[in-house]
Amino acid sequence: MKLIQILNLRILQCFIGLLTLIHAQKSIEKKPHIIFILADDLGFNDVGFHGSAQIPTPNIDALAYSGLILNNYYVNPICTPSRSSLMTGKYPIHTGMQHRVLYGAEPRGLPLTEKLLPQYLNDLGYSSHIAGKWHLGHYKSVYTPLQRGFKSHVGFWTGHHDYFDHTAMEHGMWGLDMRKGMEIGYEYHGKYTTDIVTEEAVRVITEHNATAQPLFLYVAHAAVHSANPYNALPVPYEAEAKLSSIEDFGRRKYAAMLTQLDQSIGQIVHVLQKRKMLNDSIIVFSTDNGGPPQGFNLNHASNWPLRGVKNSMWEGGLRGAALLWSPRLKSRSRVAEQRMHIVDWVPTLLSAVTGAADGAQPQNITTAFDGVSIWKALSHDEASPRKTILHNIDDISGSAGLTSGDWKVVIGTNYDNMWNGWYGPPGLRNITSYDFKALQRCPVSEALASLNMTPSVAQVIRMRSAATVNCVMTAPPSACFYLERKPCLYNVKHDPCEYYNVAEANPNILKDLLDELNRFNETAIPPGNKPDDPQGDPRLHNNVWTNFGDIVESNKIVGNI
Known about the structure:
This protein is α/β, with parallel strands linked by helices. The chain has helices at 2-29, 58-66, 79-88, 117-123, 193-207, 237-241, 249-274, 315-318, 345-354, 375-380, 436-441, 443-449, 457-466, 507-522, 548-560, and strands spanning 33-39, 68-70, 73-74, 127-133, 152-156, 167-170, 173-176, 179-180, 183-184, 215-220, 281-287, 322-325, 334-336, 340-341, 388-394, 399-404, 407-411, 488-491.
C-alpha cells in the first residue's frame, strides 16, 4: 500500500512538473501583439528624436528613447509604393506599384495574387485589424481591407481627405471617403480624422481577447498629409493655439496636426498597458515617405538637413523617421545604425513571431521576399544582413535610385529641375530648447514606468545627439545634370546631405551600381497604372468614392437579365 502511495506521489510530481514545463514553454512561445503605426508624409526633422525641438512629440520620443531609433531606415519615395512594400515584403517593381500613387477612380489595386502581412499573421493565429488609410485599391471590394486579411476597418480608401468633412478631391472629382467596414461612414462627419483613427484603435485593443490570440493592429494615420485645397492643413484651433511660438502659420498648423498624432500614440500605449498587453507587444512607428516642405503639396514638413522632398530619390524623400519598441529586444535604448528598408517589415515581424533566424524563411512560408529579416540584428545589435537597397525604378518618370554599401546612385528626377535642394525650416535644434518635462509626463512615459523602462535625461541627450544628422558644406554643392538624366553618385556615409556628386571621380563604383540597377530592372514587371475610369466619379454614386467596379458589373448583369 505504501509503495502504491509513493508511486502515486511520484506520478503526481511528474504530472505537475510536466504541466510546469508546458506552461513555461507556452510562455516562451507566446506570440507578441504587433502594433504598427504609420504616419503619412512625416519629415525627417519633424520628430524630437532626430534633433528637432520645434514640434513637441513627447510620446513618440519616449518610445524611441526606450526602444530603438532606426537611424539608417529607408522607405519608398511616395505613398502607394511604400504601403505596397510594407504589406507584401516586395519591391514595387515586382508588384507593378512603382509609378506614383493610386487614384480614387483608377480601376486597379495591389494585385490579388499577393499575400499580405495580415494574411501571413492570421495563418499564425493573429487577429488583424486596420484603423485609418488604405490606399492600395478599392475599385472592387476584393481589393479592400476586409478581403485582404483584416477583420475590421474604420478609415478611408483613397490617398487623402479632409479631416472634418472627410471628402477627397482628385482630378476634378469630389466625394466622401470614410468607411466603417464596407459601410459608408456618414456618422463620422465633423469628427477629426486623427481622433476617429485613435478611437478605433483603442476600441480594437479594449475588445481584444489577449489571452485567446495575439493582435495585429495597423494604425495608418492620415496625419500629417495635407487635405483638400480649401483647407490644406485641418486641425482643431485649440491644438494650433498651443503652438503660438511657431511664427509661420502653415508650419504651426502642420505642427499642431503632428501633436494630435503624438497624443494618439499616447492613448494607444496607455490602453495597451491598461489591458496588460504592453509587456507582450512590438510597436513600430514609421513614416511612409519623406516630407513635403512648404510649397510642395500645400504642406509644411521638414527633412532638414537632408536633401530633397517626398517623391524624390534624394535622402529627404527616402530616409524615414522610424522607431522600434519592444521588451523582447535584447539590446534597447540605443540608436540603431543597422540598415533597413520598409520592404523588410514582413520577414522581420514574421521572424519576431516564429523565431526564424535573420536571412532564413519562416517555417511554412514559401514566398520569395525582397525584404530580409532584420529582427535578430536589431535585437542583439549585430550587423544588418541588408547591404543594398533599391529605392525605386520608375521608367515612366525616368528616375531610379540604389544604395549599396556607402554608395548611392541617383538617376533622373520626378520634377525636372525642381525640388532638388535642401528645405527647412531647420527649427529649434539645441538641447536647451528640448522639453524634457513634457517627455517625462506624457502618457507613454507613465506606461513605461510600470515596466521600469522610462528613459532618463542622460539617455535622451545621448541618443538624441547620436540620431541627429549634421552635415558640413566645405564648398558649394556640385552640380548634377538632372535634365540630361546623367547619373549622380554620392557617398552617403560621409555625405548624407548629398552635397557632392563624385561620379566622375569614381567611374568603377558608378558602373557597379548602374549594373546592379540594370539587374533589378530586368526583373521588373510593367507598372499597373491605368487612366481614371469615368464610372469611378463620385457624382455617379451619391457623391461617394466607392467600389465602382462592383457596381458597374452588377448593373451589367441586371441589364443582361
